[in-house]
Automatic annotation (TrEMBL):
SUPFAM superfamilies: GlcG-like. Signal peptide: none annotated. The lineage of its organism: Bacteria, Pseudomonadati, Pseudomonadota, Betaproteobacteria, Rhodocyclales. This is Heme-binding protein. Pfam families: HbpS-like.
Length: 148
């Protein structure tokens, strides 16, 4: 018997309240660090679920934060892991890094709750390490897996 996929497939996504808590936690961490950031949360389909911009954060970092969240949600691994994932394959390295909205440097983390990929968080505006620290604060407030 040939089994096909059902016509409708359920997909877990982050709720709007959780997305709002995640962005607020990232901003709180940024305040502790003395930096100004933009933070975005996308659901597992890559749709923007929440966004916060701290006054004075780089305007150019708005789209970068959104794209980091989009990349982490879509692929399910940290944006900072991209170059290692394509290491040794120059074609993939050049090809993927040229894709619109794909970010290949740190600050974007997947959001996994109860072993399900439900979205991604992206932070931009500080150093790569500080962006990741703020993104990890977003995961922590959700009780999300941080095995990145």
């Amino acid at each position: 018997m040939n089994r096909s996929e059902p016509d409708v497939v359920a997909q877990a996504v982050i709720g709007c309240d959780a997305a709002a808590r995640a962005t607020a936690a990232a901003v709180s961490k940024a305040r502790e660090l003395g930096v100004r950031i933009n933070v975005a949360v996308c659901d597992s389909a890559g749709n923007l679920a929440a966004f916060l911009r701290m006054p004075g954060a780089f305007v150019q970092s708005i789209d970068i934060a959104i794209d980091k969240a989009y990349t982490a949600a879509g692929f399910g691994f940290p944006t900072g892991a991209w170059m290692q994932a394509v290491e040794g394959n120059e074609g993939m390295k050049l090809g993927f890094s040229a894709r619109p909205r794909l970010v290949v440097f740190g600050g974007g983390l997947p959001i996994r709750i109860d072993d399900q990929l439900v979205g991604g968080v992206g932070v931009s505006g500080a150093s790569e390490a500080q962006d990741e620290e703020c993104a990890r604060a977003a995961l922590a407030v959700l009780g999300a897996a941080d095995d990145n």
